[in-house]
Amino acid sequence: MRLTCPLCGARDRREFTYQGDAIMLTRPSNDDPTAFSDWLHLRDNPAGRTRDLWYHEAGCCAWLVVERDTVTHAVHSVALVEGEDAD
Amino acid sequence: MTDLIARSPAFGLTPVAYGATTLTEGPWQQLTALMPFAGQTARICTALQDAYGLNFPAPGRLTRAGHTTCVWTGRGQAFLVGSEPVQDLARYAAVTDQSDAWVTLDLTGEQAAEVLARLVPLDLSPRAFGADHAARTLLGHAAIQLHRLENGFRIRGFRSMARTIVHETADAMAAVAARAALD
Ligand SMILES: [Zn+2]
């Protein structure tokens, strides 16, 4: 499996670390404890398209959002979570 | 008073030679990590131009002028190699001395790329990885920085991983030399 990092280009899977559903990027307010708890703990396990966070640990050290298909193994897109510049 | 003995990061580990391939410790050079503050990359380029005549490198690249090199080492980060950092750089970037934290190893000879092909998950053919390319990647399990030399490759790894990197590279060198001897 290869992921095409926007900074590094096509790289082998072993350079990356998988984190989980990219829903972690959209933290809800904690006014509603049930909604917050669902966001924190409940995950779908779809056969098909997923949107996940990956970390290019052995490359540029950027966090990436990867859209891929768990059925066909197609990788549809890889995008930086933040800009090219760090801060 | 204890008399301390200064040791280079690869002291006692190199040189290693198999067939036509050699692994030696690279020259000790001043290494400075530059991490431009948000939106300051253009200003850091101007400061680097004024001081050394080179630009902050694009991702996956290095820039060179005289004995100074600026090597991309990750998102928003590059190493200034071979020169003292001028004061001005700290106005636009986080500037950290890294000189003693890394081991520099030079793998040279005609079969250097074949040796690295057993350890590094990158296409290192000249058309994919040229003289101005710089990568952060893996050598076995060790995180490294990599770029070309005229007759091989320069590997920069964490100083604490020096023994592992030399060991794994030496094993691959022996295997490539053994295979060449069969042909
Ligand atoms: Zn990357």
TrEMBL record, chain A:
<dbReference type="Pfam" id="PF04267">
    <property type="entry name" value="SoxD"/>
</dbReference>
<protein>
    <submittedName>
        <fullName>Sarcosine oxidase subunit delta</fullName>
    </submittedName>
</protein>
<dbReference type="InterPro" id="IPR006279">
    <property type="entry name" value="SoxD"/>
</dbReference>
<dbReference type="InterPro" id="IPR038561">
    <property type="entry name" value="SoxD_sf"/>
</dbReference>
<dbReference type="GO" id="GO:0046653">
    <property type="term" value="P:tetrahydrofolate metabolic process"/>
</dbReference>
<dbReference type="GO" id="GO:0008115">
    <property type="term" value="F:sarcosine oxidase activity"/>
</dbReference>
UniProtKB/TrEMBL annotation, chain B:
<protein>
    <submittedName>
        <fullName>Sarcosine oxidase subunit gamma</fullName>
    </submittedName>
</protein>
<dbReference type="InterPro" id="IPR027266">
    <property type="entry name" value="TrmE/GcvT-like"/>
</dbReference>
